[in-house]
Amino acid sequence: MEKELHEHPLVIGQTLQRMVDPASRRVMLPEMPFDLASVPRAVITACGSAFYAGMIGRYWLEDIARLPVDIDVASEMRYRNPPLTAGSLGLLISQSGETADTLAALRSLREKAVHILSVLNVEHSTMARESDVVLGTVAGPEISVASTKAFTAQLTVLACLSIAAARARGTLDEAGEDALVSALLDLPSRAAEVFTQGPAIRRMAQIVVEARDVLYLGRGSMFPVAMEGALKLKEITYIHAEAYAAGEMKHGPISLIDRTVPIVASAPYTPLFDKTLSNLQEAKARGGRLLVFTDTKGADRVSAIAEDMVMLPHVHDFVAPILQTIPVQMLAYEVAVLKGTDVDQPRNLAKSVTVE
Ligand code: G6P
Questions:
Q1: Is the CB of 50 inside a 6 Å radius of any atom of ligand 1?
Q2: What is the Rg, in whole angstroms, of the alpha carbon atoms belonging to the chain?
Q3: Is the C-beta atom of 346 inside 6 A of ligand 1?
Q4: What CATH class is the domain 2-172?
């Protein structure tokens, strides 16, 4: 897992190389047997970390491409029997391309005459064979059970897909595309800088390892990042963690807060920074210990309230969830090392779950 975490900058770069034309700096997707401009709706479905990647993809597709998106975990999607207009887009996300629930969801979407686009790391997988289009993540083999580099590669593909859909739908002009593509192309070097924060992440791990329960918070596209952080912690350290939308904390989990429940928050300096910070202040006022992932622009205000923080480079809002994912995964890894659990082969889990 440590090796795969360090491959984040590389796989983001490799995935971009496949999707962005270097001369024109425009997103270039493979030929598709349907037109993104006329797709009435997208349905995203996946399991585990891939599902959280899909949640971030929904923010992008709705915001940039103005495409209505429905999303659910694959093991539930089928039972909802969502009404879908023929010609809608089924967007499946899977590292392995073999997850039984995601494959079953793919087949049930296929029955509704929707176009099937899959974002896959293993390009010769069952899901690849059954899809109309495959967008490959170029993450290389991922061996550790808990997904890391495949997740940021999935986000990179979804970001490019959102840009292409926005261009096709006329919701993004050339200058807008230029700004988003530049932010993406800048990511591999910004991601490499995250590793300088190792000492701060290891300090946070010393606090988290003592906890029985941990609360992860984020707003907007940082909410799925918080969910990914909580999932990683559960998977490899066996510490109970729960992710909440920062604004929803006051409707329940705030009652859990005391010194024994650390709060891990993802709060880069985006338009949602002030609101996230005010939620964190509410938690602090109730005795919460705040461990905050922020960036160079948010650092001053975060340091005034947080017990500890990790300061990442400031990047465009669009790509912030990709960058912010790296340290939350690193935190889970460091806690697992302190606990001495089997990081690569956690108990009861499998890399690819081929039963429903
Ligand atoms: C398993 C793994 C998770 C992974 C999920 C989906 O549960 O433990 O890390 O996110 O499967 O796998 P997929 O191959 O479909 O992305």
A1: yes
A2: 19
A3: no
A4: alpha beta
